[in-house]
Amino acid sequence: MRVKTFRGESMQAVLAQVRQELGPEAVILGSQTVRENGIALCELMAALEQPEDAPPQGPAEPQVQPLAQPQVAEARPARHTEWTAPATRTVSIPASPVADWSREWDEIKGHLLALLRPRMAFDSLAPRQRLALEYLEREGVDEASILALFHSIVERRENTVIPALSRILHVKPLTPQSATGAAQLFFGPSGVGKTTTLLRLALAAHKQSPERRVVVANADGGRGKGRLMLRHFAELSGLVCLEVNDPAEFTQLAASAATGDAVFVDTPSFRREGEAEAWCREMGISGQPGLTGHLLLSPLFSPTQTAHFLRAHRCQPLESCIWTKLDEACSYGSLVNVAHASSLPVSALTFGPELTQGLAPASAKAVWKLLFKHQLPGEYPDTSDAGV
Q1: Of the candidates 4, 367, 325, 341, which has an alpha carbon nearest to the alpha carbon of residue 148?
Q2: What does the alpha-carbon distance between residue 309 and residue 298 come to, in Å, rounded to a whole number?
């Protein structure tokens, strides 16, 4: 199988390239819209199933020799791309019909946005608004979010971009006080910082109210490192450390939080779409009051990774998004993209390696400083909304 990627200004132009190079028998494996030097391009991955030129395995040695010389030039490309064939077959088998449709819809939406992009007449905006939207594009804000911002500004005839951004990117601060009354569940991919963020909040709650019972719970039975880390800091700081593995234990955690305890739960990492929701149903979490979820993501993830993690961890308990490892990122457009795609408010911002520092409740000022000036919380006097 010969696999090649083509790019062009339009779908018609790319299809013409495919037909010219691979012929009418080519099969389209996938398509997406990509940006190159600020220009939206259509990208297609196409394949051509080539006939098997390898000689049959048998004692007919004389039959192999005549075919060896004339086939050398064409056999090398076939061997060069042979490794892609198994991967293509694996990807073509979707995990579920819902996941397959989700990916197809993302591709269709990308093509629609590419067609709508020329209709966004930035010249109709005020100079400051146009500069702000162009800056957000350079920061990695996707076309769907830029289009929503553009229409929001035009329809309301606003003079600045911040009101339109505020309607997309909401803020709901997460503090030890706001965590009262419900057990806080932390969802996210492996390595994003779930355990560290959980401990930061637990230690802050213990410091503010030493008499309050603070519980850290591990629900990820397959990850020994996180369990040991929770137990270690619980013993050092006077926290209660528990293991939860079934619906009855999650019900007990919800009851404990309802009585005034501060409860923080580390959940497994999920890799496939729908896994988090299935796990929540299995544990009796979905629909149960007293259990609140937070999705942890990092701006270090690529747009494709972020979209996949959002689909894999989407579940009923989710009420906010926490952004981690902000000090390691160089752009923050993904905050706008995830808020627009998921409608989840930003609740907290984390940065740096210290457990006793590096976590700030989200505020409008903190988000705008991060997005437009790349300033982390703590690099300016406060993170309140005053002076935005």
Answers
A1: 341
A2: 11
Q: Residue 335 burial (CB < 10 Å; 0-12/13-18/19+)?
A: buried
Is 92 contained in some domain?
A: no
Tokens 């729908």 locate to 274
Q: Is residue 385 part of a domain?
A: no
Using the 8-state DSSP alphabet, how is residue 246 labeled? Answer: S
Whether the Cβ atoms of residue 335 and residue 325 lie closer than 8 Å to each other: no
Residue keyed to tokens 């067609």: 115
Paired tokens of 114: 């590419």
Would 107 be classed as within a structural domain? Answer: no
Domain extent at residue 354:
183-373
Q: Give yes or no: residues 209 and 356 share one domain.
A: yes
The CATH number covering residue 245 comes to 3.40.50.300
Q: For residues 326 and 370, is the Cβ–Cβ distance under 8 A? A: yes
Kindly report the CA angle at 178 between 174 and 180, in degrees rounded to 5? 130
What gap in Å lies between CA 381 and CA 376, rounded to an integer?
A: 11
* 38 and 162, same domain (yes or no): no
CATH code assigned at 44? 3.30.1660
What single-letter DSSP state applies at residue 253? H
pTM for this prediction: 0.69
Residues 133 and 193 placed together within one structural domain of the fold: no
Please indicate, yes or no, whether residues 274 and 314 belong to a single structural domain of this protein: yes
Same domain, yes or no: 144 and 283? no
Each residue's pLDDT tens digit, 154-175: 888 888 899 999 999 999 999 9
Lookup: tokens for 297: 């993501």
DSSP string, 34-80: EEETTEEEEEEEEEE-PPP-SPPSSS-HHHHHHHHTTTHHHHHHHHH
Beta strand pairing status for 240-243 and 214-218? parallel
175-210: pLDDT as tens digits: 988 888 999 999 999 999 999 999 999 999 999 999
Q: Are residues 224 and 347 in the same domain?
A: yes
d(CA 194, CA 324): 9
Render pLDDT for 341-375 as a digit per residue (tens, 0 to 9): 999 999 999 999 888 889 999 999 999 999 999 99
User: Domain tally for the chain?
Assistant: 3
Residue 377 and residue 305: Cα distance in Å, rounded? 26
Q: Is residue 383 part of a domain?
A: no
Amino acid at 58: G
